[in-house]
Write a structure and sequence with these properties.
mainly alpha; about 0% strand
């Protein structure tokens, strides 16, 4: 089995992972260093923060829970408002309602124009002013919501990477232990076969 940063295969006998977690006399730092060297081919001090967190979880044998940042909803009132505006403004319901309002505005003013009592006669200058104001205010609000969502998406991607990396490293460690067990079984079978010979 090959390790990152190495061109040579590691035999099951020489696997540095075989005894990790079985020796209570090992300090936390030694276990971290042995695990990082065996799985990632680098000392614990040279790992990235994400890799260190994965090694720490494996050493402590703690489950990979959901990130607290993703579990809690710590949005302020204004952030919630921005998300609501983005949700409503980016829906077909908003497009339909807004289109009906525009058509109703135009029809009402054209009808009132016959009696010279239109509050926004053609070419609907006041309507254009309101549409410009809505667009000017809605755009930055939606951008604020998208920016905050991008931060949460990045945190979720980092958490997914951590979980996937841990799963990959755990599989590598199990593979090493399986190789070691197979090698030991082969030696036991060879010894039994030698004893069985007359």
């Amino acid at each position: 089995m090959k390790r990152p940063g190495s061109n040579t295969a590691i035999s099951a006998d020489a696997s540095p992972l075989a005894g990790i977690g079985r020796r209570p006399d090992m300090t936390l730092k030694i276990r971290q260093d042995e695990l990082s060297q065996g799985l990632l081919g680098a000392p614990y001090a040279d790992l990235t923060p994400v890799q260190r967190s994965v090694v720490d979880l494996m050493v402590s044998e703690a489950p990979s829970g959901v990130s607290p940042v993703l579990e809690t909803d710590d949005r302020t009132f204004w952030e919630r408002l921005a998300d609501t505006v983005a949700d409503v403004g980016g829906s077909w319901t908003f497009i339909g309602v807004f289109s009906c309002v525009l058509i109703g505005w135009a029809v009402l003013n054209l009808g009132l124009a016959r009696f010279s009592s239109a509050f926004d006669p053609y070419p609907f200058i006041f309507l254009n002013l309101m549409l410009s104001a809505v667009a000017a205010l809605q755009a930055p609000v939606i951008m604020m919501s998208q920016k905050r969502q991008a931060v949460r998406d990045r945190l979720a991607a980092e958490h997914d990477y951590t979980v996937n990396l841990r799963a990959e490293l755990e599989i590598m460690r199990l593979h090493d232990r399986l190789e070691l067990s197979q090698n030991q079984m082969a030696r036991i079978e060879a010894a039994l076969a030698a004893l069985a010979k007359p």
